[in-house]
Specification:
Elements (H helix, E strand, L loop, with lengths): L21 E9 L3 H12 L4 E4 L13 E3 H10 L2 H7 L1 E3 L1 E6 L2 E7 L11 E3 L2 H12 L6 E4 L3 E8 L2 E8 L2 E12 L6 H5 L5 E15 L8 E5 L8 E7 L3 E7 L6 H4 L2 H12 L5 E14 L4 E2 L2 E3 L5 E2 L7 H20 L8 H26 L4 H14 L3 H4 L38 E3 L3 E3 L9 E5 L12 E6 L11 E4 L4 H6 L4 E4 L5 E5 L4 H11 L10
Parallel strand pairs: 1-2, 1-11, 2-8, 5-13, 11-18, 22-23, 23-24
Antiparallel strand pairs: 3-7, 4-7, 5-6, 9-10, 10-11, 12-15, 12-16, 13-14, 14-15, 16-19, 17-18, 20-21, 22-25, 25-26
Length: 544
């Protein structure tokens, strides 16, 4: 199949240049990568206009982020691009681990049926960005996407920030109510505010290569510790669309990045791995492991998301997925604040929840790095002993670490969630699990929830007197009478919803599909109290 063709997006002269050099915007998003575009689309779905500024005019060059997790796919599905990603991407859920020339063990990341989205889809970042740009075009009155618009200064104020922008036709200024910085690991906005990361930079360097070839490798994740073709180091293989394979090779701390990227050095390494020369290099890069983040993600009206807020090593697919989950957490809160439906202090919960998520990703990434690249003789002895035992002993398999693959973090115990007594079902703070349902046609539970607050009642009618803004959803088995008071009814014919959520249980669900509260027998007052807490109208402190 042909390789991806990079087509420049059209630059348009900003209207501010013909209006005195100044304008305003409720939200300015810096960076039109996956994170910034996701934020703009989600804001548009909430009716909030934004201006997206990017200093480039093409999608990202090279595959970059390729492993999109089940949770991120569910978010993309809510935004309208999930089916395109499934159609184009390579679906997988099995990983295999090798030590030298033997397979140690394999694992299944989604062993149970009854979910719309798979465990992972491999799809090059340039396709994801293309799909998001095309989806953004569906909101011409709400998303103003500006290419070749480089942000040169951000001056915070109590009511927003002044954003200075340079273009091929000259400079202008936007007075923004809010700024979301999605401008990557080398974030210029972060530098403009005098902020820096805290954390750890590891010494190891890794070569990353996209290789175009005809091959029969299965749609699985293959990871080697000390393979025969790359002695003493580690390697990773992933299949992508268009006959492109992602190959990662550990190089060691003393490798010269520029020398290692030269084809005459890359090709022999790939040849040793795959055993033939019938391949073409599509993209090559060298990277260093980092596990770092900003101390805070919220700085007044300037908010950081994605790599501008935190960076992790790529093993575990926690970078791109973490960034998409950042804005999934942020946008509904920002939209509620802008609409006057929540106090501005609600934005602090973004900092609380996503710093928590970033720390979880950083811990997992740092542990994986230490296992993959042991620095002491004792660390190496531990790793080799674990790998020797893992083939025959389940306890040792839990210790093997080639990157703990991305999972949504729990928000349990954080300030917006109402604690629940022990009981069946999904605990507050967890992401809703999907399940097959019917609503005239076969479908999926998560396609009926999200974007706004909802009360989901399983095998029970929602109580009377609920807040008008709260969506009411009843899940029934299809055999008895269903509520008729404006409640949406979903039929759980397979019993999967009842098995996962518990018969008779009710849930207050946030717009990002996290459970805010769980009830055995809710009344309107308890639901309203939980809703006040989930929207920041009840002050609970950082953790409640």
């Amino acid at each position: 199949m042909p390789r991806y063709r990079y087509e420049p997006f059209a630059y348009r002269r900003p209207r501010e240049l013909d209006a005195g050099g100044r304008g305003d915007a409720p939200v300015v998003i810096v960076g039109a990568g996956p994170v910034g575009l996701t934020a703009a689309i989600d804001l548009a779905l909430h009716g909030v206009p934004s201006v997206v500024l990017d200093d480039n005019d093409v999608v990202s060059v090279g595959s970059r982020a390729i492993c999109w997790s089940k949770r991120t796919l569910e978010i993309f599905d809510r935004l309208g691009v999930g089916d395109r990603m499934l159609d184009k991407g390579v679906t997988w859920k099995v990983g295999r681990l090798f030590h030298r020339d033997r397979e140690v063990w394999s694992f299944d990341l989604l062993p149970e049926p009854g979910h719309k989205m798979p465990a992972f889809v491999n799809l090059q970042q340039y396709y994801v960005e293309q799909y998001l740009v095309e989806r953004a075009a569906d909101f011409p009155d709400l998303i103003d996407l500006r290419w070749k618009n480089r942000v040169t200064a951000v001056a915070p104020r109590s009511d927003g920030a002044a954003v200075s922008v340079d273009t091929p036709d000259g400079a202008y200024r936007l007075d923004a109510g809010w700024v979301i910085a999605c401008d990557g690991a080398r974030s210029p906005v972060r530098a403009m505010l005098g902020l820096d990361f805290e954390g750890r930079v590891f010494e190891e360097r890794f070569l990353i290569a996209d290789v175009e070839m005809q091959a029969d490798f299965p749609s699985e994740r293959w990871f080697w510790f000390e393979p025969p073709f790359h002695r003493g180091q580690s390697a990773l293989l992933h299949k992508q669309p268009d006959d492109i394979y992602r190959i990662d090779l550990q190089l060691g701390p003393d490798a010269d990045p520029e020398a290692e990227k030269k084809p005459e050095n890359v090709i022999p390494r790939i040849e040793a791995m795959i055993g033939h020369r019938d391949f073409t290099l599509d993209w090559v890069s060298v990277y260093v492991f980092q596990c770092r983040r900003l101390e805070r993600f919220v700085h007044g009206r300037v908010i950081f998301a994605g790599d501008s807020a935190h960076v992790v090593s790529p093993f575990g697919a926690r970078g791109g997925n973490g960034g998409i989950q950042d804005v999934d957490n942020l946008v509904w809160k920002l939209a509620a604040v802008i609409a006057g439906a929540a106090p501005e202090s609600l934005i602090e919960s973004y900092d609380e929840e996503r710093v928590h998520g970033a720390d979880e990703n950083i811990v997992n990434s740092a542990r994986a790095t230490s296992f993959m690249t042991p620095k002491t003789e004792m660390e190496r002895l531990f790793r080799d002993s674990v790998l020797d035992l893992a083939a025959d002993h389940a306890f040792a398999r839990r210790l093997v670490n080639s990157g703990r693959l991305s999972q949504p973090c729990s928000l349990a115990g954080l300030s917006l969630q109402t604690p629940a007594a022990a009981g069946p079902g999904v605990a507050p703070g967890q992401v809703m699990p999907d399940a097959p349902v019917e609503n005239g046609n076969a479908g999926w539970l998560l396609n009926h929830v999200g974007g706004g607050f909802a009360l989901l009642s399983v095998g029970a009618a929602p109580p009377a007197g609920l807040p008008a803004a709260l969506d009411r959803i009843a899940v029934v088995d299809g055999r008895g009478a269903a509520p008729t008071d404006g409640t949406r009814v979903l039929v759980d014919r397979a019993g999967t919803v009842r098995a996962r959520y518990g018969e008779g249980m009710s849930y207050l669900v946030r717009p990002d599909q996290h459970v805010a509260a769980r009830f055995a027998a809710p009344d309107a007052a308890s639901v309203a109290a939980a809703l006040d807490r989930a929207t920041g109208r009840t002050q609970q402190g950082r953790r409640g």
